[in-house]
Write a structure and sequence with these properties.
- The complex is a heterotetramer, with 2 copies of chain A, 1 copy of chain C and 1 copy of chain D.
- Chain A is 35% helix and 24% strand.
- Chain A contains 10 helices and 10 strands.
- In chain A, strand 9 and strand 10 form a beta hairpin.
- Chain A starts with 5 loop residues before the first strand and ends in a 12-residue tail after the last helix.
- By secondary structure, chain C is mainly alpha-helical.
- Chain C has 13 helices and 2 strands; from the N terminus they run αααααααββαααααα.
- Chain C has a two-stranded antiparallel sheet.
- Chain C is globular and about 75 Å long.
- Chain D is mostly helical.
- Chain D has one domain: Arp2/3 complex 21 kDa subunit ARPC3.
- Chain D has a two-stranded antiparallel sheet.
- In chain D, helix 1 packs across helix 4 and helix 1 packs across helix 5.
- The chains are: A alpha/beta, C mainly alpha, D mainly alpha.
- The interface between C and D is large, with 135 and 121 residues.
- The complex binds adenosine-5'-triphosphate (2 copies) and magnesium ion (2 copies).
- The site of one adenosine-5'-triphosphate has 12 residues of chain A, from helix 1.
Chain lengths: 244, 244, 269, 344
Amino acid sequence: MSHHIVEFKDVCFRYPDGTEALHNLSFRIIHGESVGIIGANGSGKSTLLLHMNGYLMPTGGTVNIGDLHLTRKTRREIRKKVGIVFQNPDDQLFMPTVYDDVAFGPQNLGMDEEDVQKRVRAALDLVNCYDLINKPPHHLSNGQKSAVAIAAVMAMEPDILAMDEPAANLDPKSRRLLINLLKTFEHSKIIASHDLDLIFDVCKRCIIIREGTVAADGPSQDILTNKILLEENNLELPLSLQRR
Amino acid sequence: MSHHIVEFKDVCFRYPDGTEALHNLSFRIIHGESVGIIGANGSGKSTLLLHMNGYLMPTGGTVNIGDLHLTRKTRREIRKKVGIVFQNPDDQLFMPTVYDDVAFGPQNLGMDEEDVQKRVRAALDLVNCYDLINKPPHHLSNGQKSAVAIAAVMAMEPDILAMDEPAANLDPKSRRLLINLLKTFEHSKIIASHDLDLIFDVCKRCIIIREGTVAADGPSQDILTNKILLEENNLELPLSLQRR
Amino acid sequence: MAFDSQYYNVGYLDRLSYQDTFVHRLDPRTKLITTLLFLFTVISFSKYEVAALFPFLLFPAIFLTVGEIPPGFILKKVLLVSPFAIFIGIFNPLLDHGQVAILPGLTLPAGWLSFASILLKFFLTVSMALLLIATTSFPTICHALRRLGLPSIFVSQLLFLYRYIFVLGEEVMRIVRARDMRSYGRKGTEIKVFVRIAGVLFLRTVERAERIYFAMLARGYEGDMPVSKKYHLTTSDLAFALSVIVCLFIFRCYPVTQIIGNFFRGIFS
Amino acid sequence: MHMADALISPAVGATMWAGSLAVLGYSSRKIRETIDNKTIPLMGVMGAFIFAAQMINFTIPGTGSSGHLGGGMILAALLGPYAAFVVVASVLTVQALFFADGGLLALGCNVWNLGLYPCFIGYYLIYKPIAGDGGNYRRIFIASLLSVIVALQFGAFSVVLETILSGKSELPFHTFVLLMQPIHLAIGLVEGIVTAGILSYVKNARPEILDTGAVSRPPAAGLPCKNILIVFVVLAVLTGGVLSWFASTSPDGLEWSIEKVTGKGELAEQEKGIAPVLKEIQEKTAFLPDYNFKQAHKEKPETEKVPAWPGIDTGTSVSGVVGGGIVLGIVFLIGYGIRIFKRQ
Ligand SMILES: Nc1ncnc2c1ncn2[C@@H]1O[C@H](COP(=O)(O)OP(=O)(O)OP(=O)(O)O)[C@@H](O)[C@H]1O
Ligand SMILES: Nc1ncnc2c1ncn2[C@@H]1O[C@H](COP(=O)(O)OP(=O)(O)OP(=O)(O)O)[C@@H](O)[C@H]1O
Ligand SMILES: [Mg+2]
Ligand SMILES: [Mg+2]
């Protein structure tokens, strides 16, 4: 299915304040792949994800999602294909109840109420949170918030799922649940994180970003075991590979 | 030195909305110890730390810091002894430049300008951030912000250092630097975190909190290797002890 | 995306203000006071005055170049905020029909003259205000205000505001992104959704204020924000202030433009 | 509707600065007396909140255009009038500096127009009496809607007055009023609804914030009447001050603006407007060397009295045009020169 491809070609991006966050960045992700994006603080991971659905537009180079070339015109279409979950679930749950929040996307797609309900139910079932449907988001635990934020994006049935630092602030058990959840998704997945163990568990492929450009790209098995390469990039071996 | 003891005796705490966050919690930490506080999301770790210098006052039981019994009257005294670094450095760097921020504490202690400058310099040197002295906090990276937040607390020269989730959002290298930094402090240290590897590296002793009470207390070496105990508490073995 | 361009502009100005040039190094009090004098002098010209305003362009030109501020950026910002002044000023040519001779054989309605005067004044005042902030970091402006006697509560408000604009700005940007991502165009931008987002933001701001307060208590805060005395007037500050004042005086009291014009006409005729 | 520097005269600017500074000083003293330490950081972040909330765009129903939040009333409801005024003043200061919204001289006007009315008049006369302590949703809604609208009307009217008194714009008073007030009625309606919505949301989620004061507020009892009186006295004195100051510094201008306000004699006013100016220029140039050329023309226009326009003096204006071009050139060269010099 060629239409689930994500392709960045020589993408450059400069924030209006002059920071050059991406610089000739190129990669290509095909359907069903799961890819980890890693790199030091400020290397450009979050900026990269924001390009995936046209939230930021490249100042140079091109982004293609499926058959679509990312432009101001196509980005509405592209947003239906790519769902992004950002780091802090508090930023994403702005409606008064879990139901309203998960329903927000489908409602805006113009679906009728019955279909919306089905979608909401399916999405919440996926993350095992159907019980929370009537709670207000500020009464949820951190782990539950993360799960609901994912459900809210899944309710839009995206073809590609992108996540920024999905496990921050979760306790180890919730983190493990999240990892298992991510493993069961069949979508293309792109995950940016400092949690290299999570990346190792979830992603087959791994891209290291350094100063806005690709420093390494290959199977996680190779990259995440390459101590020298990792240390060059302000990273270190996944903790589970470190000996005590 | 009896005056650096931290002692919680049957502490209970109920938030105004009725949530019982701490329940008959007791422990005792002596001078120079480094203690990790771990537990599931919502188990009460942050609430516990907020009692250490009287931001929250126990609704039952007693808290003693050194020779002082925590009351509304003594808490100003106690705040000079206990320095707390919270999770989000943005909430702690509230002054417009690094210098002003680190100087804030000493200035409030009524020191004259020259001594203040010395303290600021010493504190920033401690965390290797002296170069940043004239920058505004929003020009710093996450790791630098964490380091400066620590310096700001260290400039008060507290006897006891308490930290909530110090390594969140740091890349692996910055996290490692922070761990090494923490290891060099001779203060009593109390660190609440989900990063069990960090706790294992920095703390000799470890307390598990469950639903607001102490579920286990002992050497990290024992507690953090006890898989069953950890799993009962929504935790898991430190990643570096997990086999792949 | 209009909302973040505003935010980015603040960020950019802020970065410019931390450069290190002669203008940046001047004492903030000197710059603040001379800027205010400049502004007063400029707007004290009568409504039909155009020619006499030209020499004042020298000030922004010098600030721009000595302070190494990109002129394009300042121009763009001035254009961005011009609509209100244009809106008010454009009525002048429409309402004021008296004729005034500009060159032999060329007369214009006087309204155009006063309109041009408004625009020129607008350009001068706005660009100087922007250049002040582009060459003086905000915390130092606040120190200057404090030293000039403004209430300390007000000044500490300014400092907090400055500090947290950037933090809350990022936060808002993330929330708006999350909304836009799931709202496909206009549908998610109803007032109803806005109110909720603003409500969420409001509550989180109150909670953040609480955390900040804890952090302040942790460092001995008892109600007074400490002031540090970091700035001293130097001879270059005094020299700068003096030369600005002399220039302003000359430009205000003598029609420099006309004298120069006469001089050149004298040469060529 | 921020006033801009270019539209005000020094007299108006200075008067409004003085007025705003006075209220600022008074409010700061009040805050010291009545508010606890906790409120200081809250005020600071609330200012940033107002800023941030302005960055969220929303669509105004039926129009498709987008609006944003003003915020004075929200602050007043949460923090009480004194603290709210100080916060609004700080927000406007930052806007003046970073966004060049308004300007430094017009800052006094803007703080007055956008801070004083919502915080004191809107809050004490309307919001507080209607919403009461806590209040129910309907009362909060009515109270915020009304107070926002009224405060904005006052603000808009002040903009008109300040502009007219400054005498830089030709807009006749009545046209200007007819333009500003309805626009601000519409803006006020939207802003009022939004304010009401946010306050209701907060009341729903964290009632204690609005009711008792997670925030300590100055006690409301007894104070309002006295304060409103003070405000009005200050207002009256200031208006009088503006007028008399104006009268003493620029009698023509006052005459001009009064004629404007009463709406008569446009032509007469123009004559008064420009003639003295040109004359002043001539007088000044006369002191200087190199004025022979002009001397020849000097008496001419005064006597010539073309019906359409009295003050034609081609001599001065030609010099003005030529000189203007040359000055521009010089400024450019100086700038360019510095740049080249710095590169090396
Ligand atoms: N809104 C912004 N305006 C200006 N510069 C920005 C902005 N956001 C990020 N940057 C800069 O762009 C670069 C890349 O930032 P980005 O947030 O993409 O890094 P990151 O890899 O996600 O870092 P982290 O691991 O800390 O999340 C950094 O230098 C950062 O300072
Ligand atoms: N301000 C508050 N008002 C009411 N309840 C609260 C408040 N803050 C925390 N709680 C509740 O108190 C309990 C303990 O919370 P606390 O923040 O101490 O947990 P924690 O161990 O720090 O969790 P985490 O690992 O997620 O940081 C939780 O049930 C939480 O929901
Ligand atoms: Mg990031
Ligand atoms: Mg916590």
